[in-house]
Write a structure and sequence with these properties.
The protein is an alpha/beta fold and 416 residues long. The protein has 16 helices and 13 strands. It has 3 domains: 25-162, Rossmann fold (3-Layer(aba) Sandwich); 174-334, Alpha-Beta Plaits (2-Layer Sandwich); 343-416, no CATH class.
Length: 416
């Protein structure tokens, strides 16, 4: 479906979220129902209160209820006492829980218990004989602290997002791409798995800006980013690395899979309809493809430089094409896409994106790769696949793929 090219309405810098003042949301943990009731009655009006009869229940509520901002807990409780609850809170990997203010309830004369609670991360204490005025004052002070902590956390997240996200396209930016891709390539090297990089450039982008204006150019980049994002796998890393240039780091992808991916992206952009008002704007991309040699350690900088050189070759040879070798091999020099057998995971991705017809010629080869799974299923689960009959049918599918027959042979699989 065509859509008009308009500037991305979300291209403004990310705003820092702030909290409006609202009644406190408290967790009160005490094994005494009487003390819990007294504490609840002492809370500020309209406070939202969750109650727990022991530390175990309190810990469960903390993990389930994101809205809890402050904890008031007794120290002497069954199952999980207040000290252990404090340890769990302060060691939590969830920042919301780890930073939550905690007030302990204890006797004013029990200085040893108070000191131990502070060592474990308590923020304050309330004497068991405290009156309503004191309790409310302490709750109010720590509720304000909770709001400040939350606002600082939101600011941290926002700044982190701005540091790692391209403001226009909302893709990973150049800085973050190099960090993530470097980690991915090291993981692939350790496990001796293939790794590929694609450099992508929007063809004649300067002409688009000069002809239709920079707002149209920005909208083109946003839509191209969306198309690229819709045609990659979840573990691929897509980034805008500058201007009209994009990059993709593709773990577990060999040269063949990378070429199939590059051609799929090229076709997707070429077939999309870009509109500036009522005027159709022709948009194409050129792609440089490089794959890691498992036996030769390389850096992401080296791979990106080679992919960039191949991208330049593709553009020099006419644009709207890919180049996958240093010798200038372009898509015309490669076997047709329909003759390139994708990996099983790439085939599944192609099917998920509605490109099942491109997979059909390769069904025989793809199913043949799955024979070990059928064998294992027979051994482990006794599913009763007739492997001899299955292999005959697969051979028929492979023959059909080569000849291009109208109706491929069906594969009935009988299981016990």
């Amino acid at each position: 479906m065509a859509r008009e090219l308009t500037p991305d309405e979300h291209s403004e810098p990310l705003a820092v979220a702030t909290n409006s003042v609202h009644p406190p949301r408290l967790l009160v943990a005490d094994d005494s129902a009487t003390i819990r009731l007294a504490l609840v009655r002492s809370m500020p009006e309209q406070a939202q209160i969750f109650e727990a009869a022991d530390g175990e229940q309190a810990w469960k509520l903390l993990q389930e209820k994101d809205e809890i901002e402050l904890v008031i807990t007794d120290l002497d409780m069954p199952k999980v006492n207040g000290y252990e609850l404090l340890r769990q809170i302060r060691s939590s990997r969830i920042s919301r829980i780890a930073s939550i203010p905690v007030i302990v309830v204890t006797g004013a004369e029990d200085t040893k218990a108070i000191a131990q609670a502070f060592e474990l991360g308590a923020n304050d204490f309330i004497p068991k004989n405290a009156d309503k005025v004191e309790i409310r004052a302490r709750v109010r002070a720590h509720h304000n602290l909770a709001l400040l902590i939350h606002e600082l956390e939101e600011s941290r997240k926002s700044l982190n997002a701005q540091a790692n996200t391209d403001a226009l396209t909302k893709l990973t930016n150049r800085r973050s791409f190099f960090l993530r891709a470097a980690e991915a390539i090291e993981l692939m090297r350790r496990h001796r798995q293939p790794f590929s990089v694609l450099m992508i450039d929007v063809d004649h982008f300067k002409t688009i800006n000069d002809t239709y204006g920079h707002q149209c150019g920005d909208a083109v980049l946003v839509q191209v980013a969306e198309i690229l994002g819709n045609n990659i796998r979840t573990n691929d890393i897509l980034a805008r690395i500058g201007g009209e240039e994009f990059a993709i780091a593709a773990p577990y992808s060999n040269r063949l899979a990378a070429v199939v991916l590059a051609e799929r992206l090229r076709k997707a952009v070429e077939s999309a309809e870009f509109l500036n008002g009522e005027t159709r704007v022709p948009i194409t991309i050129s792609v440089g493809v490089v794959s890691q040699d498992k036996n030769t350690p390389v850096t992401i900088d080296q791979l990106l430089a080679r992919a960039d050189a191949r991208l330049y070759i593709a553009k020099r040879r006419g644009r709207n094409r890919l180049c996958a070798t240093d010798g200038g091999e372009s898509v015309e020099d490669l076997p047709p896409e329909d003759n390139l057998t994708p990996r099983v995971d790439d085939a599944l991705t192609m099917i998920q994106h509605g490109n099942g017809r491109a997979v059909e010629p390769h069904l025989g080869s793809l199913l043949e790769k799955l024979i070990p799974l059928f064998t294992l299923s027979n051994e482990r689960a006794g599913t009763g696949f007739d492997l001899e009959e299955l292999q005959k049918k697969i051979a028929g599918l492979q023959e059909h793929g080569e000849k291009g027959d109208e109706d491929p042979p069906s594969i009935p699989i009988d299981a016990d």
